[in-house]
Amino acid sequence: MKFLLILQGAGDPRLPREVFERAAGDAGELVSGELLADPQLSVQLPAGEPSRIDGYYVIDVEDRDRAVELARLLPDARTGGRSVEIRALMHPAAVDL
């Protein structure tokens, strides 16, 4: 199952995430991940306050429990004012023709 780990919150988003990246990478479960540019540089339609999302990882793991286990390795899950949201990615039900 693929999950999106959404890094969000206040403070500096550039936290050391090597432990997570090594664990997920060595297990072959890390698909991708990026930090996002400053929200002040974003455009939101309709106009509103920028989100507090600072980055993300996509992981491909056996189940939700493994996704939670990996997310707990992220410093965002242990830093005041920051959090990690874990969301399953939807897969199309249709078969490729």
Automatic annotation (TrEMBL):
InterPro entries: Dimeric_a/b-barrel. It comes from the Bacteria. This is YCII-related domain-containing protein. It comes from Kribbella karoonensis.
